Amino acid sequence: MKNTRRHFLHKITASALALTVIPRLGMAGLPDMTEAPYDGPVLRVAIMGLGGYGTRVAEAMKDCKKAKLVGVISGTPSKVKAWQEKYGIPEKNCYNYDNFDNIKNNPDIDAVYVITPNALHHSQAIRVAKAGKHVICEKPMALNAKEGQEMVDACKKANVKLLVGYRMHFEPHTLEVIRMRQAGEFGKILFFQGLCGFKAGDPGQWRLNKELAGGGSLMDIGIYALNGARYMIGEEPVWVTAQETKTDPQKFKPGVDETIQFQLGFPSGAVASCLSTYSMNNLDKFFLNGDKGFAEMQPSTGYGPIKGRTHKGELNQPVVVHQTLQMEEMSDIILHGKQPVVPVNGEEGVRDLKIMDAIYEAVKTGKKIALK
Ligand code: NAD
User: Fold this and answer.
1) pLDDT band at residue 314 under the 50/70/90 scheme
2) What's the pTM value of the predicted model, to 2 decimals?
């Protein structure tokens, strides 16, 4: 099947592409970003949950060569109809939340991308696995580590892959900082700061409903600072401390955190200090410091363009549509067993959930929690 990518490499100058980007991308193991026709296998994906982010992924997938949107799972017939028309989805690839187990009889769908509210991921992902289809699941993968592990186990048992929608793990500026850190260019890593937040608007949205969100800002946006601390420092934390502050208890009910600050300690002695909030805009910043240099990124995890610099100068990397690149890479991971620089598998999701469980415990007890 042939496809072209119209907007994939937007906002990148031809000279930068020719002079610096292609060799670096090659080194980082990123995909062929040229307009060359593609005749290889294509991952055929159904999206479950046709909301804001599902729509963004569907639009981004228009420019994929190795992945294609072929099906939908939704509880809203009018949305299904609109998506069928927009993306040319045949009736036989449309399901609702009651009948999607029948997807097991559909040979034209390889994977289901679960993009529903957090609390639904666990049961939906397990049903998809039981139907014999690969699972891509949005972050947070589940509400806690126990649920996450059950998803990993179910996918293993069904012999399907489980990936988490960690789009930053493919983002070129991010990968360049990781490459520099691995090459020792920052020296001994000592400190990471991750600031992630936005102002949560509508008080009636599912993100502010403990039942559906499983928590508050940490589940939704603070997870980027946590995950970022791990891939930027390149180690697994051994302890965590955390504090919660709430300025609007009316809007942020019990169990829905408005702002959490957390600190992580790593085996090498490096520390991370992170802020997760639903009450501030323009909070999207990473800072990594070592004894020979630093990297800072702002924005660091938003949809981009991601910008950053190090002690050596600007990070000149291509600006990509994160979700297009993510789906291209996930196609290679699922169809060809490609190993990404930073894992996106279920085990990686569970690692974050274990630390999030500990962060909530630290908030509750005021204690420093040791991580196994
Ligand atoms: P959304 O509210 O825009 O969409 C959620 C969709 O789920 C809607 O279409 C809704 O109809 C459907 N749904 C199914 N069952 C539902 C139920 N019982 N209650 C409420 N809605 C139900 O939310 P979103 O922003 O698309 O977020 C969906 C998931 O994607 C979340 O897990 C979120 O964390 C994740 N997300 C990830 C990113 C990212 O950059 N990776 C960005 C945004 C959202």
Assistant:
1) very high
2) 0.93
Cα 312–Cα 295–Cα 372 angle in degrees, nearest 5 = 140
What's phi and psi for 271, nearest 5 deg? Answer: -125, 155
Answer whether residue 328 shows pLDDT above 60. yes
Binding site membership of 50 for ligand 1 (Cβ less than 6 Å): yes
Domain end position, chosen among 145, 167, 189: 167
Residues 180 and 283 in one domain: yes
Q: For 247-260, write each residue's pLDDT tens digit.
A: 999 999 999 999 99
Residue 70 has pLDDT above 90, yes or no: yes
Cβ of 227 below 6 Å from ligand 1: no
129 and 236 housed in the same domain: no
Task: Sheet containing 111-114: give its strands across.
Answer: 94-95, 67-73, 43-48, 111-114, 134-137, 162-164
What does DSSP assign to residue 303? S
Of 73, 116, 198, 221, the one to substitute when testing ligand 1's pocket (max ligand atoms within 8 A of C-beta) is: 116
State if residue 302 touches ligand 1 by the CB under 6 angstroms criterion. Answer: no
252 CA → ligand 1 middle, Å:
19
Pocket probe for ligand 1: among 79, 115, 348, the residue whose CB has the most ligand atoms within 8 Å is 115
366 alpha carbon – ligand 1 mean position (Å): 32
Which residue, of 167, 189, 214, is where some domain finishes? 167
Domain presence at residue 338:
no
Domain that holds residue 272: 168-318+347-370
In this structure, the answer to whether residues 157 and 232 fall within a common structural domain is: no
Q: Are residues 313 and 221 in the same domain?
A: yes
pLDDT range class, residue 27, cuts 50, 70, 90: very low
pLDDT exceeds cutoff 90 at 308: yes
Q: Report how many domains make up the chain.
A: 2
111 — phi, psi (to 5°)?
Answer: -145, 150
95 is known as an active-site residue: no
